[in-house]
Amino acid sequence: MKILRGLLLAALFLLSSCQTESLPITILDGENIRALQSSERAPVNILAQAGITLQANDRVLFNGISVPPDQPVPTSNSIQLQVRRAVTLTLVTSQGEQTVQTSALTVGEALNEIGVTLTQNDFINPPVETPITQPIEVEFFPAREVTILTGDKTLKTRSSARTVGEALAEAGIPLVGADVSAPGENEAIPADGMIRVTRIHEAINIALESIPFETERKDNPNLLLGQEEIIQPGIHGTAMTRTRIRYEDGKEIGSITEDRTIIRAPQTRIVTGGSQIVMSQTNGMDYWLAREMYATVYSPCASGTGSCLYGTASGARAGYGIVAVDYSIYSYLAGMKVYIPGYGTATIGDTGGGTILESKFNIPRTKWIDLGFDDGNIQNMTGWVTVYFLAPAPAEIPYFLK
User: Fold this and answer.
1) Disulfide: which of 37, 181, 221, 263 matches 238 by Cβ 3.0-4.6 Å?
2) pLDDT at residue 361, as a whole number
3) CATH for 87-141?
4) Fold agreement (22-84, 87-141)
5) Architecture of domain 277-401
6) What is the value of pTM for the model shown?
7) What element of type H or E holds 297?
8) With bands split at pLDDT 50, 70 and 90, how would you rate the model's confidence at 267?
């Protein structure tokens, strides 16, 4: 009997020694604080004793560290449990919005829990380290490969920008002044990620240019025909031109003259030409005008046409004694008698083209004369000669002889 009672006392001692010690526990549930004594170690059981029910996605923190609700927490002198209730997180992406319930401590932890992989240059607002204390909206735009072409340079980068302008600013290549991009800076980044930047700048060029003066001619009956007198000298004017030059990637592509200002107007040269006719003599012949003219020579079969031409503008037979002048002044001089030293007396009776000498040698067509010769008897008299216009003088002197 004594042995049986001893065994019973030993069993009761062992049972009491195996029971878990009851510890003080503090529970934080939002703004509510609860204290209790419990020998339970699994948070879910402790919370049940306190009448607190966990909802889906809620989490429990043991002394500030997240722990599984159904697993025993380490034994400690005191236990503090914090219930972190799940809140709504609205994730905004380029594909739209997604709503989840989370009890994560930070934005980055919440994104990781829902399977969002973060990479360099991703756009996240608010930042990943932002604590979650209430319902929150998070913008997330993952970075992607972007290639920026500027002149002959290429830059590859990653960007989460939503517009071309934002991507350029991120890469340190902002558009400045008149710079342009393709696509435009307010457009979305293209699917291939290619952005072309054209650097544009303009320069203003100021240039001075000379304005030639004009010549005004007047008759002077007190001067001999052929003489000139300058009454007022001609003075060139000056104009200032403002030109805007446009460059793209350092190359000039065009210019626009914006303004032309006359700084000094040109002064007209005024020349009086004598119209007084005084007869003189040369080689026994009376003449009313002597004029230097550039002479060329021709004959009926050596006129540059490839055939023999004997007809003339006056109807006379081409040959010695018939000279030609430019067609533009022939009507003023037709039929006049002239004398050329070394050639002799002749009649102005044919036309030619003095435009060739004028364009190639800068000899005015009004100072050209073509001396006719018979075939086989051409003399080389090409060059400047004095042409004497023989009496009688015409009633009206042609303008080009004044």
Assistant:
1) 263
2) 87
3) 3.10.20
4) yes
5) Beta Barrel (2.40)
6) 0.47
7) strand 285-298
8) very high
